[in-house]
Design brief:
Elements lengths: L11 H15 L4 H16 L17 E7 L6 E7 L7 E2 L5 E7 L1 E8 L8 E9 L3 E4 L7 E5 L6 E7 L7 E5 L6 E5 L19
Antiparallel strand pairs: 1-2, 2-9, 3-10, 4-7, 4-9, 5-6, 5-8, 10-11
Helix pairs in contact: 1-2
């Protein structure tokens, strides 16, 4: 995808995804149900083109976390991550279930396991993700990781879904050498979210 040439043609894939996730939440979905049913919904979204607004695709000098939608009851949130070449997160956790789907480029997600005695963290599971791949993060197991752009000099964009308003959750970054946590609340890098509900251009 060429970030500079894409115009919004149809935001319907994002709207459909939000409706599907809301249906799962309204059905009383717990973590197990979301992790079973939501990956196919996310895979369909990230394989769709021309729905992501251009301002949500441009890299900056640090990676960006951009809110696309938060459920009114904060049962889930949908976030776009934009990674410039060579950018990566610190080691961090989420404390809630999550999904990561690659929309453009490639990424590596490396599980990091803290040392209970304060020594260096050790890598665990490694997921090498390309466009259309979706990985599941469980609050009970695979929750602490580092994510990096693996797109060889190009921008990478991934869509993340979390079982809470992730920008308001108190969670931790970890010193990889000492396993020591530092607590933070991430917030979001954008001040507005895409308008899912303007149907004026939808054909009757």
């Amino acid at each position: 995808m060429d970030n500079g040439s894409i115009l919004i043609q149809d935001i319907a894939p994002l709207r459909d995804f939000v409706c599907g996730m809301t249906a799962l939440a309204d059905a009383g979905g717990d973590e197990a149900l979301f992790l079973k049913e939501a990956p196919s919904l996310l895979r369909k979204l990230v394989l769709s083109d021309h729905w992501l607004p251009p301002e949500y695709t441009a890299p900056t000098d640090t990676y960006r976390q951009l809110l696309l939608h938060c459920d009114p009851q904060q049962r889930f949130s949908v976030v776009c991550f934009v990674w410039g070449p060579g950018q990566q997160t610190p080691v961090h956790n989420h404390t809630v279930w999550g999904l990561v789907g690659v929309h453009q480029g490639a990424e590596i997600s490396t599980e990091m396991v803290p040392d209970p005695h304060g020594g260096p963290m050790r890598p665990g599971r490694v997921d090498r993700l390309k466009r259309g791949d979706v990985v599941v993060l469980s609050s009970n197991s695979y929750d602490t990781h580092r994510v990096e752009n693996a797109a060889e000099g190009r921008t990478s964009i991934s869509i993340h879904v979390y079982g809470a308003n992730i920008g308001a959750v108190t969670r931790a970054m970890f010193n990889a050498e000492t396993s020591q946590p530092e607590y933070f609340v991430s917030g979001y890098d954008n001040k507005a979210v895409p308008n899912l509900w303007d149907l004026s251009r939808v054909a009757a």
